[in-house]
Specification:
Number of domains: 2
Number of helices: 4
Largest sheet: 2 strands, parallel
Order of helices and strands: EHEHHH
């Protein structure tokens, strides 16, 4: 498996921070996922993360700007859309133990606005 480490944003990590995180076993570093997943769990919500690795960290590649990351996301959004369509359709069949119909409601809402 891989180890994800969440840092505080919104900013890119420094080369020194990346070096330290690599030494303690981090494979992927980002600004999101952990705060959201903790809050979702505390609220009793079903939560899943889909992440896109957009760049190598500071000191591992030429400097990258936020605009370059946004441009990458624009280029891959059609791929992400396909993944989301597949996942939403799979979750329609999902029957959670707690009886939550959240995914079915999302599917219905997406169908109504023509997104699926």
């Amino acid at each position: 498996g891989y180890t994800y480490v969440s840092t505080y944003g919104p900013r890119f990590e420094s080369a020194g921070e990346i070096d330290m995180l690599r030494r303690v076993g981090a494979d992927i570093v980002g600004m999101t996922n952990i705060p959201e997943s903790v809050l979702a769990r505390e609220a009793g919500l079903h939560y899943m993360v889909i992440s896109v690795v957009s760049n190598y960290a500071a000191g591992m590649q030429a400097r990258i700007t936020a605009d370059e990351v946004y441009d990458l996301m624009k280029r891959v959004k059609h791929r992400l859309r396909k993944i989301l369509d597949i996942l939403v359709n799979l979750f329609v069949e999902y029957e959670p133990e707690d009886g939550c119909n959240y995914f079915k409601e999302i599917y219905r809402d997406f169908r109504e606005v023509g997104k699926i």
